[in-house]
Amino acid sequence: MTDAEREDALQVVARRAVPGGTPRRTWPLTGGVSAGVTALEIATADGETVRLVLRRHGEVDRGRNPRVARDEFRVLEIARAHGLAVPRPVLLDESGELLATPFLVIEYVDGEPDLAPADLDDWVDQAVDHLTRIHAVPAAGLAFLPAQRIALDDGSGQTDRAMGEDAVRAALAAAGPPAGTARSSLLHGDYWPGNLLWRDGQVVAVIDWEDARTGDPLGDLANARLETLWAFGAGAMGTFTERYRAAAAVEISNWADLPYWDLIAALRPCGALSGWRLGAEAEDRMRRRHRWFVGRAIRALRRR
What we know:
Structural class: alpha+beta
CATH superfamily of the largest domain: Aminoglycoside phosphotransferase (APH), C-terminal lobe
CATH class of the largest domain: Alpha Beta
Oligomer: single chain
Strand content: 15-25%
CATH topology of the largest domain: Aminoglycoside 3'-phosphotransferase, Chain: A, domain 2
Radius of gyration: 20 Å
Strand order of the largest sheet: 1-2-3-5-4
């Protein structure tokens, strides 16, 4: 597709998303890694201006889940019905007639991630509140979503020794599967500071739901713990965990499983961290904190 053809297609998308509207402009949004993200500005028939976002999932996401666009659209509908702060889904297209791959159009939320909060304590409070509200949504009615999956062997035959992947996999194999919680819940799948949009000191949206799953909330919590450690340090991670434990609306029947899920979360960056477009200083800090996180989880798992 040429640039002109792509622009024409986006104009048609905009008209379908807002019937009777007049497309004004489109522009790429930065920050997307697994999905291409384009903003659409549309003038409505009554003179208002509407901004929307077009999301096209990448090859990796579509290979893992060919229905990823449809699933994200549906989970946004359900999340909003449960009162969660997520963008409103507007349009889903899987026809391939306008763009070569399926896409969804969602509400544009005016906000941005806060990666250097003036009040870290309040940041943690709000992040925990939104995560517990997500986990309060039961898996019943979410059968279309992929289930949480534990893969101790990625099939590559290679391990990232620099990040201790071999030790992590050995510890997980020795520990055996987690006992599990009393109820399977909605999981965001990638709950980290970059997926929380803030405006005027408040979280206004949790975005990027392509990794949504159903399963044990401790898996989501573990990922959030590692991401909080990376962003703000061990103290913030500990506070996040304590407040989640106090506020969780879902019965967590086996907190002793948390080190297991910490190690599952620790596998995610193995073999991939160097491709995350980080500066050398940030990557070095994240590697050091990852080693600390892994060592702590392995010791805790052995005591389980």
